[in-house]
Structures are given as structure tokens and as C-alpha cells.
Amino acid sequence: MTSSHPEARLTTDVTAKNARILVPVLLGAMVTVAMGVYGANHRGKSIVFHVSGFENLVVAKSWLTVAATVFAIVQGVSALVMYGRVKGVTAPSWIGGLHRWSGRAAFFLAVPVAVFCLYGIGFQHHTPRVLVHSLLGCLFFGFFTVKMLVLTRRGVAGWVLPVLGGLAFATLVGLSLTSAVWYFTTHG
User: Fold this and answer.
1) What is the distance of C-alpha 28 from the center of its chain?
2) What is the rounded distance in angstroms from the CA atom of residue 93 to the CA atom of residue 110?
3) Residues 20 and 155: beta-carbon distance below 8 Å
4) Do residues 57 and 116 make contact, with C-beta atoms less than 8 angstroms apart?
5) What are phi and psi of 89, to 5 degrees?
6) pTM to 2 decimals?
7) Are the C-beta atoms of residues 104 and 121 closer than 8 Å to each other?
8) What is the C-alpha separation between 108 and 64, in angstroms, rounded?
């Protein structure tokens, strides 16, 4: 039985829009937990290989992290421009492409770093910085999973993508601060 009250229909519409993100959120949570469990149970071998142009793998990972963060900043700014959140700036026709490609670049730069960290080192917690870094790494890929799955769903509430994008961005910045920025300020 449906109600003829506008408030009831509005509540039903909002509930339906929010329910569309339930499966992606559950899958993202599974990715986060799976990465944490794998990382905690897998004792990394600190596999070292040479990346051409870098003195060692830590430096390569640090620069890849900085580059991923720069592309994430470009994606964030382009999203603000795309959605008219920057006063006095009209979105150019190419802004959507810049947004998508900067996000892809950030992700593809972050993946090799994550693979080495997860497989080569594992989930660590011997200092607060390392614990926060490990948690943020797992959360980033969970948030990213949710965001990518939600992108394909129609009728999702308008607040969802900006929140998911903001969470992915914030965790990537946190990862950068607890790894690359820490490394460069500590070791030069």
C-alpha cells in the first residue's frame, strides 16, 4: 500500500537511493578487511628489486606516492570545477577527461606501491605512524572499490560520489603523509 503523502514518498525515494550503495559498501568493506587480514597474516619477505632511475625501492615508492597524490589533487580540483564549486570558473569541455584520467593515473601509480607494501612488508603496527599507514592503505582500496562500483549505479543520491571521492582522497593524502612525506623529511 502506497501513501499519498509527499513526505512518505520523499522518504521512500531517499531510502531507495541510499540502499543502492549497500552492496558496493559491503564489497568495499570486504576488500578493506581482506587486505588487512592478508597483510597481518602474511609475513613480508621485503622483496627488493631495482627500479631504474631510483637509488632504492623506498625512494621509488616515495616518489610514486607523491605523483599519485598530485594526480589525486588534480582530480579533486577538476571535480570541484566540474560541479561548479569554484566561483567564477566555468567548466571547460575537457574537464571531465582530465578528471577521469588524473584519477586513473593516481590509481595506477598507487597500485605498485600497495603491492610491495602489502606483499613485501605486510600489515605493520610497531609504531603509531606505521599502524596508521597500514590502516589507511587498507581503507584507501576499500573506499576506491566502493567509489568505482557506485559510479556504475543509476539513481544514487547526489551526495554519495563526492563523499566517496573525498574519503579516497583523504586516505591517499594520509598515506602520502605517513610514508613519502615522512620519508623525505626524515631521510632527505
Assistant:
1) 11
2) 28
3) yes
4) yes
5) -115, 125
6) 0.83
7) no
8) 10
